[in-house]
Write a structure and sequence with these properties.
The complex is a heterodimer of chains A (about 120) and B (about 120).
Chain A (H helix, E strand, L loop, with lengths): L2 E3 L4 E5 L4 E3 L2 E3 L5 E8 L6 E7 L6 E3 L2 E6 L4 E6 L8 E9 L10 E2 L3 E6 L1
Chain B lengths: L3 E4 L2 E4 L4 E8 L5 E7 L6 E7 L2 E5 L6 E7 L2 E7 L7 E8 L10 E2 L3 E5 L1
Parallel strand pairs in B: 2-11
Antiparallel strand pairs in B: 1-3, 3-8, 4-5, 4-9, 5-6, 7-8, 9-10, 9-11
Classes of the chains: A mainly beta (about 120), B mainly beta (about 120).
Chain lengths: ~120, ~120
């Protein structure tokens, strides 16, 4: 069975600090995809990144970076020089091919509520 | 403007009411989903439709009834709900057959309160 754990329920930092959101996943499959979504107060989930299980290269996009470590089954997300607009709930999610392959949706973690204080 | 539109944004209903949530996607996707987001719980997948056929029903109570008349529209019909059904209901879409590696596109959700 798939499982995604985001142990940090809420994180509060002061603007311009760096912050890392943790994500640990469980799956029995060797082929899977990991995602991060952002949910601002408006409600919709906004896609941030997708990573497949065969690509462990870390990725950087502006102030965002992701560290994928298969050895520890983790896919952590770091925001550098955080800004107030980064305040949101962030979800890590997992999809593996065996669980349905087709349109079977994603398994989400419970989310981390990130608060950036000015 | 999001490619997935949900109406209404907010809904308050009594336990004896019947109401429907609507979702429309303008992305040309063939798969659509209903998720339930309750406080302090992971998003729960409720229903999946692929090419208007239901392919997933995650043990959702029968008081929730989905309908997918075409690949662009998805409804969630509600009747005799319970207070614990109060939640944010999110609709999403993706290209058919590739949702395992394609990001889902979500709507803004409908905030449902059952009194």
């Amino acid at each position: 069975a798939q499982k995604v754990t985001q142990a940090q329920t809420e994180i509060s930092v002061v603007e311009k600090e760096d912050v890392t959101l943790d994500c640990v996943y469980e799956t029995r499959d060797t082929t899977y995809y990991l995602f991060w979504y952002k949910q601002p107060p408006s409600g919709e989930l906004v896609f941030l990144i997708r990573r497949n299980s065969f690509d462990e290269q870390n990725e950087i996009s502006g102030r965002y970076s992701w560290n994928f470590q298969k050895s520890t089954s983790s896919f952590n997300f770091t925001i550098t020089a955080s800004q107030v607009v980064d305040s949101a709930v962030y979800f890590c999610a997992l999809s593996d091919v065996k669980s349905g392959g087709g349109a079977d949706g994603l398994t989400f973690g419970k989310g981390t509520h990130l608060i950036i204080q000015p | 403007e999001t490619g997935v539109t949900q109406t209404p944004r907010h809904l308050v209903m009594g336990m004896t009411n019947k109401k429907s949530l609507k979702c429309e996607q303008h992305l040309g996707h063939n798969a659509m989903y209903w998720y339930k987001q309750s406080a302090k719980k992971p998003l729960e997948l409720m229903f999946v439709y692929s090419l208007e056929e239901r392919v997933e029903n995650n043990s959702v109570p029968s008081r929730f009834s989905p309908e997918c008349p075409n690949s662009s529209h998805l409804f969630l019909h509600l009747h005799t709900l319970q207070p614990e059904d109060s939640a944010l209901y999110l609709c999403a879409s993706s290209p058919r057959g590739s949702s395992y590696n394609s990001p889902l596109h979500f709507g803004n959700g409908t905030r449902l309160t059952v009194t």
